[in-house]
Amino acid sequence: MTRSPLRGGRRTGAAALCAAAVLLAGCTGSDSSGGADASPSPSATVPVPATAEDLQDSFQQVVDQVLPSVVQVTTGQGLGSGVIYDGEGHIVTNAHVVGDAERFRITMATGRDELDAELVASYPEEDLAVVKLTDPPRNLRPATFGDSGELDVGQIVLAMGNPLGLSSSVTEGIVSATGRSISEGSAETTIGNLIQTSAPINPGNSGGALVDLSGRVIGVPTLAARSPDGGGGTAPGLGFAIPSDTVRHLADQMIEHGEVVDSDEAAIEATVRTVLGDDYRPAGVAIVETEDSGAADEAGLRAGDVIVELGGEETPDTTALARALASHEPGDEVKAVYRRDGEERTVAITLGER
After folding, report:
1. Together in a domain, 277 and 207
2. Is residue 182 in a domain?
3. What's the CATH code of the domain at 231?
4. Residue from 127, 245, 264, 305 carrying the catalytic annotation
5. Is 148 designated active site?
6. In a domain, 113, yes or no
7. What's the mean pLDDT in 215-232?
8. Are residues 236 and 287 in the same domain?
9. Contact (CB, 8 A) for 214 and 200
10. Catalytic residue list contains 257
């Protein structure tokens, strides 16, 4: 029996589902050597170029502005990237980068300064974590976080991080889509409302910065799609990032409370498990137990009911149900199709919050 997260994500655009298997872009197994020496620049955002001739200069200005805010996060198991969140030394990164560690070595963008940091909180449900420098230097360069709700498909973005241990690397691409919902491999955790980008995201890029041409962080890279040929490599041009609106919403809570107290993630508020049909294939999601006065309970669902569709999306297993929930927010009313005593029925559910 599995207790599924069954939660959704914050939305910035039309929700869409992606069935591709994904590969965490996080920790590499080795430290980096060397790094770019980035010079401080004014904190004001860089103006978007008016002509194509200005594009290269704009790229370089954005790199000079943002790269000092992107750090390397090293644990005993590997390394990833992080973004300086504020002047107090808080750094946002991915939950899969920090793993089970509680202490970290932070390498600044210059590649020369190594600092100690401790875990503030980790929220694997959205693959986000916050760590804090134990002795923050005075010359910290917090990044400017933009409004991911204003993103347009086709918008040029830069990804900054430490792929494969290569410090302070920069790649370029566009916003390919918004509102993607992705399952993490064979796990039942589904992350909703991700930004899809063509900017290359490789192991070690996780937790870094996805930046627009105004120098604002609009996402934190977290996933790269796995190649469908089964070779184990990443699929070119298919990377995913947590939107900056979600990052701020969760990071502020972790800093203030030491945990996430308001997930803003949709749920049916029930313990569920996948059931198999006569052909031994997944055939629906059975309710094991409902929470008193929760969304499923209020809709009249009870233990033994098997949900086969939610909000127009088929739910043969708990992962599919989590993906369907990731397309919605708490308070949304959706139709659920379920089986009870061999009879198929439909009910409206007002989704709760995880």
Report:
1. no
2. yes
3. 2.40.10.10
4. 127
5. no
6. no
7. 76
8. no
9. no
10. no
Same domain, 310 and 250: no
Residue 184 sits at the vertex; the CA angle it makes with 315 and 270, to the nearest 5 degrees, is 45
Number of H helices, E strands in the chain: 5, 22
Confidence at residue 48, expressed as pLDDT on a 0 to 100 scale: 62
Q: Are residues 279 and 181 in the same domain?
A: no
d(CA 114, CA 179): 36
Distance from C-alpha of 303 to C-alpha of 273, rounded to nearest angstrom = 11
Q: 0.90 exceeded by the pTM?
A: no
User: Domain check: are 215 and 241 in the same one?
Assistant: yes
Q: Establish whether 262 is a catalytic residue.
A: no
Look at residues 203, 237, 262 and tell me which one is the last residue of a structural domain: 262
- Pick the catalytic residue from 167, 168, 181, 206: 206
| Alpha-carbon gap, residue 189 to 82, rounded angstroms | 22
Q: In this structure, what are the phi and psi dihedrals at residue 323, rounded to the nearest 5 degrees?
A: -65, -40
Distance CA 194, CA 219 (A): 9
Residue span of the structural domain in which 302 resides: 266-353
- The string of pLDDT tens digits covering residues 137-193 is 988 999 999 999 899 999 999 999 988 777 778 999 999 999 887 765 444 567 878
Q: Which one from 4, 69, 90, 96 is the annotated catalytic residue?
A: 96
Could you read off the pLDDT of 27-57 as tens digits, one per residue? 555 444 333 343 444 445 666 656 766 778 8
Q: Among 233, 262, 291, which residue terminates a domain?
A: 262
Same domain, 295 and 189: no
Could you count the other beta carbons within 10 Å of the beta carbon of residue 111? 17
Burial grade of 341 (CB within 10 A; 0-12, 13-18, 19 or more)? exposed
Q: CA-to-CA distance for 233 and 134, rounded, in angstroms?
A: 37
Which H or E element spans position 134? none
